[in-house]
Amino acid sequence: MPQSETRAGPRTMEHLESRLTAADVRLSDDVLDRIDEIVAPGVTLDPADAGRQPPQLSDANLRRRP
Known about the structure:
Helices cover 32% and strands 0% of the residues. The protein is mostly helical. The longest helix has 10 residues, at 29-38. It is extended, with a radius of gyration of 17 Å. The N and C termini lie far apart (52 Å).
C-alpha cells in the first residue's frame, strides 16, 4: 500500500504571510472566561491526550491568572 502524509499549513508564502498576523491576536479576559465556562481548564476532550499535563496547567506561574 502506498504511503502518504497530510501536512497542515500554508502552501504558499503569500498564504503564510496572510496568516502571520494571527500570532498577535490577544483574547480578552471575557472571551477567555467564556471559553473556560465551555471547557474548563484541565479537561481532556481527546482520549489520546489522557495523562498529558501541559505546563500551563501544572505551573501556576504560566496561567493567565493566579
